[in-house]
Write a structure and sequence with these properties.
Mean pLDDT: 77
Strand content: under 5%
Order of helices and strands: HHH
Radius of gyration: 23 Å
Structural class: mainly alpha
Largest sheet: none
Low-confidence stretches: none
Distance between the termini: 64 Å
Helix content: 55-70%
Length: 88
Amino acid sequence: MNGAAANLSSRFVDADFAFSGTVLRGQKALKPRDERTVDQMNSLLGDPLGQLFVARYFPPQAKALDDDHDRQPEDGAARPAGAVAVDG
């Protein structure tokens, strides 16, 4: 029930905030409805939208470079992106 209170009428939202927000978390004021809505959408859709973004705008070649970088041992020296490590 606690998780559903934010999705119910303003009476429930206000009652939930009066206890959970002020008593338990010490908040002074309830965020405006639009901010609460954006927070909830980000919480629910953040990962799926991120995956869609990566699939569409992150080319496989870049992923291969990143995967290769993850496999290379750290030598302690910073290299610019795309630089090739030279042994010797």
